[in-house]
Automatic annotation (TrEMBL):
InterPro entries given in the database record: Asn/Gln-tRNA_amidoTrfase_suB/E (IPR017959), Asn/Gln-tRNA_Trfase_suB/E_cat (IPR006075), Asn/Gln_amidotransferase (IPR018027), Asn/Gln_tRNA_amidoTrase-B-like (IPR003789), GatB (IPR004413), GatB_C_1 (IPR042114), GatB_Yqey_C_2 (IPR023168), Gln-tRNA_amidoTrfase_suB_CS (IPR017958)
Keyword Chaperone: no
Biological role stated in the UniProt entry: Allows the formation of correctly charged Asn-tRNA(Asn) or Gln-tRNA(Gln) through the transamidation of misacylated Asp-tRNA(Asn) or Glu-tRNA(Gln) in organisms which lack either or both of asparaginyl-tRNA or glutaminyl-tRNA synthetases. The reaction takes place in the presence of glutamine and ATP through an activated phospho-Asp-tRNA(Asn) or phospho-Glu-tRNA(Gln).
Keywords linked to the UniProt accession: ATP-binding, Ligase, Nucleotide-binding, Protein biosynthesis
Official protein name in the record: Aspartyl/glutamyl-tRNA(Asn/Gln) amidotransferase subunit B
Assembly and binders: Heterotrimer of A, B and C subunits.
Length: 476
């Protein structure tokens, strides 16, 4: 039986984190009523002229540097002509001939070890609008809020051979871009989108097979399923002696199948020509150096620093630095309370648990480092016990409450009056002679029940360690 190899390259579109669009002053904020973030420029009105947003260029350079690309210091824009309702000008301003970044690559971890995925180019372009389909009436409406939002398109070499490698590449790319602050890379909001170019060939063959492009992929799960589904579809065609057609296909995640959208265009189909309304971009050595000097500490550098600077396990450091948001919270909280191990514990245990339970990403965390630091200080000072601390943290996680005020209002402070605590414990001992008898006859676990009854009587506001100590004294 023939063995097949999958060959995959990606086109990753990333919406940049500028406040305004690439060629006008309209807001790039996600959401908003349809067609409210628009003006004559981004809706393609006759006579309107684009003006390039400098921050777009700087974000593109930053991503290029972080992905080991060479920067094209003389680059320019081109017109990509195509006719579609969400494309108001009937062309898109993009880069074909002189993209801003070229010939880079990033290293990923695979089951077989480290592997470098080449990056052919990164170019800047404007996003199109969005078609909103009404299934009830069968009509489609256009929202131009997204039209003109700045994008970079990161075009990889066809170096990936499996869905696992694709996901590893995307996760690494997303982490780099988030660390740079160039984009939030939220797939669910469309600020990071991947088109998968896939072909199959017999193992040992040197020629590429006919590729298809898969669109409408807005989660890592959908990307993985689409790759497996398209691989199987192409192999089935070849096994039946039929040809794979070069085309663009749309993935339906609900049906877990794809369907043909249109035949795949080549560059000449778009009739590219130099954009006449924009002058070429000259990136001086000084400008390039200024962007280099502003490059933040990336994950690999941060990981090495954590090992030297903070006394936390390597596994913890790897998880915490896995997202910029988690790393930022860790560093800011540690700067306030100077207890890195305690901060790490709260992030690694309770925060990760609540993220999983609520099906959230680390980027969705909304609590402040100040409130986490206050909670850690209160628990360390014995003002609240561990079970109360967990209860309070859940409120911090959900609503970013001030733990000091919350504990005061709810009366959750640990009772520190030893006399009052001893009185309660003596009553619990008197009320539970069977457990006392079990303890005295060698069943030492019986003390656990007495501790529980004491905590219940104290409404959870006692220090379990202190309760244990006093019980041991009373029981002799």
């Amino acid at each position: 039986m023939k063995q097949y190899e999958t060959v995959i390259g990606l086109e990753v579109h990333v919406e940049l984190a500028t406040k305004t669009k690439i060629f006008c002053g309209c807001s790039t904020a996600f959401g908003g009523a349809p067609n409210t973030h628009t003006c004559p420029v981004c809706t393609g009105m006759p006579g309107s002229l684009p003006v390039l947003n400098k921050q777009v260029v700087e974000y593109a350079i930053a991503v290029g540097l972080a992905t080991n690309c060479s920067i094209t210091q003389y680059c320019k824009f081109d017109r990509k002509n195509y006719f579609y309702p969400d494309n108001p000008q009937n062309y898109q301003i993009s880069q074909l001939y002189l993209p801003i970044c070229r010939n880079g690559g990033i290293e990923i971890e695979t089951a077989a070890g480290k592997k470098t995925i080449g990056i052919h180019e990164i170019h800047m372009e404007e996003d199109a609008g969005k078609l909103v389909h009404d299934d009830w009436t069968g009509s489609s409406m256009v929202d131009y809020n997204r039209s003109g939002v700045p994008l970079i398109e990161i075009v990889s070499e066809p170096d990936m051979r499996s869905a696992d490698e694709v996901i590893a590449y995307l996760e690494k790319l997303r982490m780099i871009i988030q660390y740079l602050g160039a984009s939030d890379c939220k797939l669910q909001e469309g600020s990071m989108r991947a088109d998968v170019n896939l072909s199959v060939r017999e193992v040992g063959a040197t020629e590429f097979g006919t590729r298809t492009e898969m669109k409408n992929l807005n989660s890592f799960k959908a990307i993985s399923h689409a790759i497996e589904g398209e691989r199987a579809r192409q192999i089935e065609l070849l096994e039946e002696g039929r040809q794979v057609i070069q085309e663009t296909r749309r993935w339906d995640d609900n049906k877990e199948s794809s369907y043909a959208m249109r035949s795949k265009e080549d560059a000449q189909d778009y009739r590219y020509f130099p954009e006449p309304d924009l002058v070429p971009i000259m990136i001086s050595d000084e400008w390039l150096q200024a962007v280099k000097d502003r490059q933040p500490e990336l994950r690999s550098e941060k990981l090495e620093r954590y090992k030297k600077e903070y006394d936390i396990p390597e596994y913890d450091a790897e998880i915490i630095t896995g997202t910029k948001k988690m790393a930022d919270i860790f560093e800011a909280t540690t700067a306030i309370c100077n207890k890195p191990k305690k901060v790490s514990n709260w992030l690694m245990v309770e925060t990760m648990r609540l993220l999983k339970e609520n099906e959230m990403e680390a980027e969705d965390i909304s609590f402040s480092p100040e409130n986490l630091a206050k909670l850690i200080e209160m628990a360390d000072a014995g003002e609240i016990n561990s079970s109360v601390a967990k209860e309070v943290f859940e409120e911090i996680f959900k609503n970013n409450i001030d733990p000091e005020k919350y504990v005061e209002e709810k009366g959750l402070k640990t009772v520190s009056d030893d006399g009052a605590l001893r009185e309660v414990i003596e009553k619990v001992v008197a009320d539970n002679p069977k457990s006392v008898e079990d303890y005295n006859s060698g069943k030492k676990k019986a003390i656990g029940f007495l501790v529980g009854q004491t905590m219940k009587a104290m409404q959870g506001k006692a220090d379990p360690g202190k309760v244990n100590k006093i019980l041991m004294e009373i029981l002799g």
